[in-house]
Design a protein that fits this description.
Blueprint (H helix, E strand, L loop, with lengths): L1 H6 L6 H7 L4 E4 L1 H5 L17 H11 L3 E4 L5 H10 L5 E3 L4 E4 L4 E4 L12 H7 L2 H8 L4 E3 L11 E5 L3 H10 L5 E8 L15 E7 L4 H12 L6 E5 L2 H4 L7 E4 L1 H6 L1 H8 L4 E3 L4 H13 L1
Parallel strand pairs: 1-2, 1-10, 10-11, 11-12
Antiparallel strand pairs: 3-4, 4-5, 6-7, 7-9, 8-9
Helix pairs in contact: 4-13
Bound molecules: magnesium ion (MG).
Length: 293
């Protein structure tokens, strides 16, 4: 049934092609989307070496398409990742920070926090016990996603398997309602020490409530004067769905939709979400190919 639903919403459909005409900007998730196995740009979904993503990125650059990484990764790491790929604008920490001109200009894209006086959101989460509350309440089901927890300013990162709505109710009840937990998709690579089956664990971000990749895309579009029709996004997680209202098309790579029934259900509920024929970064290649026509 899920396969049939995906087949009816392929990026190659006439409905998708119509929405892709005139696209000049691609907001792209990295892990599980633009990157293959082991978060490598040069390896496919099964770890096989491939130049396909590199060739497609060069073709997009030659055609004047602006490719903007939009990731949960920390800002300074992401700026350097993007620089290696020849990309100068990034959206980091799940939309909380935008960097232009290879980090020369940084925009805080999160709303008010209780920290005050310049305290960054992660410090406030640590100081007020928000992170400890989650770790103690969900011991055995949620843990910090080491080693990616360092150098973070706005969002903290976890791995495990929890009910996001239930966590949000807990945060609200315990006086931490200014933050929210968001699902950033399936965990690839090293298995966590939690008692979960293979491919059960997800990555989660604790974010200032209201901060999403979508809010950052909306802000970037406003700052740079991009029309909605000129923008697409591609991703692999529930968090990426937040971009859908702000772009012409949101593309979800096929493997993510096939393996996460909740993601597929939420994706199908939005009429501008389409799926790729191929998985992971090969689906990313297909997306750019469709944009280039
Ligand atoms: Mg991802």
């Amino acid at each position: 049934m899920s396969l049939a639903a995906i087949e009816q919403r392929l990026l190659t459909s006439a409905a998708a092609r119509e929405r892709l005409a005139g696209v000049r900007v691609v907001y792209t998730d990295l892990d599980g989307t633009m990157l293959g196995r082991g978060a490598s740009f040069f390896h496919g979904p099964d770890g096989e070496p491939t130049f396909e993503p590199a060739e497609m990125l060069l073709a997009a650059g030659a055609a004047g398409i602006d490719v903007v990484p939009a990731s949960g990764r920390s800002l300074f790491g992401l700026v350097r990742d993007a620089r290696l790929l020849g990309l100068s604008t990034v959206i980091a920490e799940m939309g909380a920070l935008i960097a232009y001109d290879t980090g020369r200009q940084i925009v805080h894209a999160f709303g008010p926090t209780p920290g005050g006086d310049g305290e960054m959101p992660v410090r406030t989460m640590e100081r007020t016990g928000t992170i400890d509350l989650l770790l103690s309440t969900y011991a055995g089901r949620l843990e910090l996603h080491e080693p990616w927890t360092a150098w973070r300013d706005c969002t903290q990162i976890f791995r495990g398997l929890v009910d996001v709505a239930e966590v949000d109710r807990l945060l609200e009840r315990e006086g931490h309602g200014w933050v929210a937990l968001v699902d950033n998709g399936m965990l690839f690579g090293a298995q966590p020490s939690l008692q979960l089956g293979p491919r059960e664990a997800h990555v989660y971000h604790l974010v200032p409530r209201g901060t999403t990749k979508g809010s950052a895309v909306a802000l970037d579009r406003e700052r740079r004067g991009f029309a909605l029709e000129a923008c697409v996004a591609v991703g692999d997680a529930t968090a990426d769905l937040e971009i859908a209202p702000h772009v012409s098309i949101l593309v979800i790579v096929r493997d993510a939709a096939e393996q996460d029934p909740k993601l597929l259900r939420l994706a199908l509920a939005r009429d501008n979400v389409f799926f790729t024929q191929r998985p992971m970064n090969l689906g990313w290649v297909d997306t750019l190919r469709a944009v280039l026509g």
